[in-house]
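We modelled the chain as a single entity of 157 amino acids. Its sequence is:
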Amino acid sequence: MANWYGMCRSNYVKVKSEEEFRALLGLFRAKIIEHELEDGTKLFGFYSLEECGEEPSLIHGYFDPKEEATLKRITGQDWPEEGDEPLAITDVIHSVLAEGQVMVVMEVGSQKAVYLSGFAFAVHSSGERITVNLEDLICSRAVDMWSVPAEGLTPSF
């Protein structure tokens, strides 16, 4: 069976504190990227360092007490326990965004030619978020626009 391989990357945003942003992102398998505006303002983002390129997440059992304390201090979240859903970076990133900022995270990938996938997440500093699944979006738009059945529209098996 083939594996899914992809890439996940964010846009650049203003953060409340560079130190807090770096501390939070240091808990995830993510590479911090930076961009400086002409006025000297520093913007930050990330891309995934996960083995298959998916959105960085925390799972139970892989932490030390200092990391758990950092997560709790910055986000108020507990480290996932056994049986919990993984804690995705988009679940907590709002904690370090400057007021009014929106981080857009896109994840795209494929399992060879069997299927392609694409997700986008927009996370507001307030914690509100929007998720878009490319396959769901295009299929529902095709059904609505041309009144065709959804069966057979998905190019994966």
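As a brief sanity check on the tokenised model: The longest helix spans residues 134-146. Residues 5-146 form one domain.
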